[in-house]
Amino acid sequence: MKKLTKKIKAIFIILAIVIIAGIAVVATKGFNIELSMQSNNRVELNIEKDFEIADIKNITNEVFQNNEVIIQKVEVFEDTVSITAKEISEEQKEQLVEKVNEKYSTELVSDNIEIKHTPNMKLTDLIKPYIFAFGLSSILIVLYMMIRYRKLGAIKVLVKTIIGIAISQITLFSIIAITRIPVGRITIPIIIMVYLGTLFVFTNNCENRLTKLKKEEK
User: Fold this and answer.
1) How does pLDDT run across 67-76, given as a tens digit for each residue?
2) Which residues have C-beta within 8 Å of that of residue 164, sequence separation ≥ 6?
């Protein structure tokens, strides 16, 4: 029992350190936001023939000096390439057009290609579509757990579940901040996985305690 208590204390100390470090990183550097969510510029080049992403990547590496770039095939026949970067100057646009023309023997004209700007996407905009479903499912799950494990103390189960979910999510965001994992498309699936994992651990723990209590009653 003492060993178990020591392990629990050690876990809480580690979690506290991770959370404090995460808060410090967020306060000083913020999260590492995925390029698609940052303020960015985009150009679309209609090549009108098959092309390889790897070849376009070689071109963008030369033009943007290996800075982060998103390259996508667009349009129905995937014969147009969309190039997104933090910033695209007129000079860089001209270089892209020139190198693509040289590579694919096209006749693209730089003046006919527009640099499109996309403003910053807020983190709240990322999670907004999931708030209602996430909140409703959480309420229903917690209510079920309170009813299912009422013999363990409904209020205790409620408080422990909420605290457990909160700590796990805060720890997750702290780890994301510390490790500089880009916040973007993969963030929501990771949040859901940690959320479900936390519920599984708490449900399994409550189930074991309930089974033990029923045996003691017999």
Assistant:
1) 889 999 987 7
2) 198, 201, 202
